[in-house]
Amino acid sequence: MVDYFEPESCVLYGSSFGGKVALHAAADDLPPDSASTVPAAVEAVVVKAPVTYVDALERYAGVDGGAAGDGDGYGVGEGFVDDLRGYDFDAVAEALDVPVAVYHGRDDGTVPVRHSFEAMQDLSTDVSLHAYEAEGHRFTRSAEHRMRDSIFRWLEEVLEAE
Length: 162
Hints:
This protein is α/β, with parallel strands linked by helices. It has a single domain, classed as Rossmann fold (3-Layer(aba) Sandwich), CATH 3.40.50. Helices cover 36% and strands 15% of the residues. Strands 1-2-3-4 form a four-stranded parallel beta sheet, sandwiched between helices. The two termini are 24 Å apart.
């Protein structure tokens, strides 16, 4: 969408694997032959329960379209996980230079909340990390509303400061 609309600036958002994509895109850590390019005008990144380390998806590997993991009926091919291994969070930590807001459920059984704590401490940029008690990988409607309100307040502060 960024390529299509060509905005002067943007904020990237992603949840779960989409969070990984948003972080790597903002750090300009996409393959050279990628169909999408993200402009230098990324002003901030907001992620929810981001996949930062490949071990979060290891239990889903090797299952093409069948049940895997915690019985949720989702699986990914081994090739997908192999490709994912090529996108190490260290590249993001070295290159990311915009503020980041992270939202994660403390009871997330898919992507451990500790991954967000560990990954964000490696960034050399401003980070706002919110761990929601009694929330899993999918937030309740109430937590989604709290997150959305928090994101807008945070963006007002961050974008105003620039």
